[in-house]
Amino acid sequence: MQVHFIGLGEINMLNLAVALYKKGAIVTGSEETFNDSLASVVKERGQIAQKAGWFTDKIHDRLDAVVFGPNVKPDNPELLKAKELNLNILTCSQFLFEQTKLKTRVVIAGTNNSATVAAMVFHACVYNEIEVDYVLSKPTEIRLTDENDFVIIDGGNVIVEGGYQLQSIRPNIALLSDIYYDETSVQPDFDNNAETYGKFVDSVVKGGSITYNEEDVEVKKRVEASENPIRKFPYSTPAYQVMDGEVFVDTPDGEMPLKISGQEKLRCMAGAKWICQQMGIDEVEFYEAMATFG
C-alpha cells in the first residue's frame, strides 16, 4: 500500500502517517513548514518527509490514497495534482475509517471530556491485558494493527478536523460526554456546534450503541431526539464519599478508593465503565483498573 499525506504539520496527521508506516505501508508526506516540536520527529522519520515544502512529484498514479489535513488549502499544488490524476483523495477521518472498517470502532466524543474518558477506557484495557488499537490525544498517540478487534478513537475536537468529520468514522460503540461552545470552537455558534454532535449520534452504525451523559441537557436532547435504531445508555455522576481527603466510590464489592477526584472526572468514569462493559470488561475488573488511574 502506498499513501501520501498532505499537511504533516498537524500532529495527528503525522502520527497517523507514522502508524501506517509501522504497519509496513509505503508512506510519504509533506508540509510547507514544520515547527520545532515536529521537526525532530520528521527528521527521525526521514522516509516519510525529508524536507519542508510542497512537491508535486510525490503525487503519482501508483498511490492508493492521498490524505489531506484540515489546514490544507483548496489550491494546494499537491492536492490539485491528485485531483488531476483522479486519485483516491480522503480526509484524515475518512482514511481512518477505511483503515478500521473491519474493527469495532469505539469513538469517544465531546467538547471537553472526550480525552479523559478515552484515557480511562484505554487504561482499563491495558490493566486487563486487552490488546487494542487506538487514536488518542492524551498522550497524542496512534496505533494501528491488523490483529486487534477494537480501536479506541478520541473523537474530540483536536483529533478529527475540529469535529467536522466525526460522522465519517461511523462508530459501533459511541459515547458523548458534553457539548459546550466557546470562542475556540471551529463552528460559528452553539447551535451549529451542537448539530455536529447530533450528526455524530446519527452516524453510529445500526445496531450499535451510544452511551451519553444525561446530566448534560444538550447531550440528552440530541441523543433522545435521534431516530437512529441504536441502543442508548445514559450515565451520570456515581455515588461517592470523601473521607479524610480521599474519594471512595460505591461498587458491588463495597467502597473503593480512587486517585481521581471531582464530580466531572467521576462522571467520566461512569461513562467509561459503560463502554468497557461493552468491550468485555466486567464491572469488578473495571473498578480494579480505575483504582490505579490518576
Task: Describe the protein's architecture and organization.
This protein has helices spanning 11-22, 36-44, 77-84, 92-100, 114-127, 190-203, 217-225, 263-278, 283-290, and strands spanning 2-6, 26-30, 65-68, 89-91, 104-109, 133-137, 140-143, 150-154, 173-176, 209-213, 231-235, 240-243, 246-251, 254-258. Strand 10, helix 7 (217-225) and strand 11 (231-235) form a beta-alpha-beta unit. It is 34% helix and 22% strand. With 294 residues, the protein is an alpha/beta fold. It holds the Pfam family Mur_ligase. It comes from Flagellimonas marinaquae. InterPro entries: Mur-like_cat_sf, Mur_ligase_N, MurCDEF_pg_biosynth.
Topology overview:
Elements lengths: L1 E5 L4 H12 L3 E5 L5 H9 L20 E4 L8 H8 L4 E3 H9 L3 E6 L4 H14 L5 E5 L2 E4 L6 E5 L18 E4 L13 H14 L5 E5 L3 H9 L5 E5 L4 E4 L2 E6 L2 E5 L4 H16 L4 H8 L4
Parallel strand pairs: 1-2, 1-3, 3-4, 5-8, 5-9, 6-8, 9-10, 10-11
Antiparallel strand pairs: 6-7, 12-13, 13-14
